[in-house]
Amino acid sequence: MTSAQRGQPRFERLLVTGGAGFIGSCFARDVLARRDGTHITVLDKMTYAGNPANLAPITSDPEQAARFRLVVGDIADPAVVAPLVAQADAVINFAAESHVDRSILDPEAFLRTDVLGVHVLLEACRVEQTRAAAGHRERSPRFLQVSTDEVYGSVETGESREDDRLEPRSPYSAAKAAGELLVNSYVVTYGLDAVLTRGSNTYGPYQHPEKLIPLFLTNAIGDQQLPLYGDGLQRRDWLYVADHAGAIGHVLEHGVTGQAYNVGGGNERTNREIVTLLLDRLGKPWSLVRQVEDRPGHDRRYAMSSSKLAALGWQNKVTFEAGLAATIDWFAANDAWWRPIKSGEWETYYSRQYGARLAGSSKASQ
Ligand SMILES: NC(=O)c1ccc[n+]([C@@H]2O[C@H](COP(=O)([O-])OP(=O)(O)OC[C@H]3O[C@@H](n4cnc5c(N)ncnc54)[C@H](O)[C@@H]3O)[C@@H](O)[C@H]2O)c1
């Protein structure tokens, strides 16, 4: 009887790269909290976005801590990656430079991690595939690349499907698309066992305050201005982080090699609508909102069909209303988590990104 038939996960030893960030840490926390014997090694470079506090629920629980290891290192460093992949049944790659605005300020770091880093991970998997073929390990590791709906570019109408053309329009999404193409090439050329997920805009506890929802939440809690790009009518499909992490786990277990799966939230909202909901729940006034110069090349809308993932047997569990309420309440209750992040390097970034914009901003009409 296989582990899947016994109802147990197929993969017992996971290498979770970028697991100290927002979505990767949620994945690690949720998998280890199942207490089904799964072991996780997180490999994380601990950039400004990596945070050991995101893993505290694991490390403070002796049973989970015994099945967990954190390695600080770079996915683009083959010497670090090779021995870790050698010990893994599956590699789930969350590691990325992930913020579009930073990719406009400094694209090079994105190419290094989101393209070269993916290549190093794939090469390590290929070595393990050869070892498996030679009988030195039971099977080659499965590789899951966590990608994004942004690779489809701006979608004015309708919904992106997995076979649509990739038309990335920012350095971030171009780097993510390049990473995807490399994964595909390793499936076709070397027969590597790899799958892809394309998630939509994700929100929830532990998200770095550079991203829209936590930025506006933490600014509003501190009665600071909220810099709303342009007319604020950009549309995003919002996905709760535990659903995103759960869908990735489902694709890891059940996805077909070489296939990509959209992971949508089914909750399309304009940025203005999001701001209104946040302010209402916090009891803060709209007068905090400032209309600032838009992001260059700002994609107007993302929307995906998730019917392929539904056919694979996955359904989201958290409604937008419940997820947003939980997120707002978490940030309101956990300023000890986010206040330290909004200092030091943050202040340099914030003034570079928003200083001139806020100085030239106008009152945002409601
Ligand atoms: N946040 C979203 O809305 C969203 C939506 C769809 C897909 N994604 C994708 O999901 C993944 C995770 O996103 P996130 O929001 O959790 O990002 P994040 O920025 O919160 O975390 C990224 C993590 O990767 C680590 N990292 C960066 N470069 C590294 C390197 N070279 N080697 C090892 N670790 C490195 C960072 O230290 C950090 O812990 C990314 O691949 C992103 O493209 C994110």
3D structure, described in words:
The chain is an alpha/beta fold and 366 residues long. The protein has a domain at 13-203 and 239-266 and 298-319: NAD(P)-binding Rossmann-like Domain (Rossmann fold, 3-Layer(aba) Sandwich), CATH 3.40.50.720. Helices cover 42% and strands 16% of the residues. It contains 14 helices and 13 strands. The protein has helices at 22-33, 56-59, 62-65, 78-86, 100-105, 108-133, 171-190, 212-221, 241-254, 271-282, 307-311, 320-333, 335-338, 345-359, and strands spanning 13-17, 39-44, 68-72, 90-93, 142-148, 194-199, 201-203, 226-229, 235-240, 260-263, 268-270, 289-292, 362-363. The chain has a 7-stranded parallel sheet with strand order 3-2-1-4-5-6-10, with helices on both faces. The longest helix is centred in the N-terminal third of the chain and has 26 residues, at 108-133. The protein starts with 12 loop residues before the first strand and ends with a strand. The structure holds nicotinamide-adenine-dinucleotide (NAD). Nicotinamide-adenine-dinucleotide binds at residues 17-18, 20-24, 43-47, 49-50, 74-76, 94-98, 113, 117, 146, 148, 176, 199, 201-202, 208.
